[in-house]
Amino acid sequence: PAGAAAAPLPEEDCMKLNPSFVGIALSSLLAIDLWASKRLGVCAGEGSAWGSARPLMKVIEVSGHGIPWLLGTFYGLCQSDSSAAREVLLNLLFALLLDLVMVAVVKGLVKRPRPMHNKMDMFVTISVDKYSFPSGHATRAALVCRFVLHHLVLAIPLRVLVVLWALIVSISRVMLGRHNMTDVLFGLLLGYALYGVVEHCWLSPATAPALFALW
Question: Which InterPro entries match (predicted)?
């Protein structure tokens, strides 16, 4: 009837008309992330600003890929004749496998697509690799970096090179257009945290005698 008070809007409509501060902030951060990641994807294609550096970036990409690390660690484990070295290598293998599982689980849950400017020509991919969050290369780089620095005796120049490698691998993911910046940042944090899990669950002849009996 005329002059009657207007019916209140449904709660969900009120939320759309009055978005929360947190929602606005997250939307703004996401927009900045997408914009900056696209601007930094200077090697995303041959015609990009730094397209000539794309082959080098792809070599760096392979250096952080899971398969070379898994195969190299397994080979070293089979060839090692030192019990101390076998213990370290077995735990590195455990760390790499844990990394693969955790990244696959998070990617499968989040299902964030790759950046639109990405060219899908990666070395050996699996089904979850169509998703972007988090960066498995960044996760692996952070995990391996912490592992190597804690369990290998290296001269200072070599320790610096290990850290630089982890940073370059991570940066290359955005430059190649494979990931957005937040994918890489979360990947680094996840890899850093996974190392703590590996240390907590450290495998030794006392805690996992059956595994060491195999070698």
Answer: PAP2/HPO (IPR000326), PAP2/HPO_sf (IPR036938)
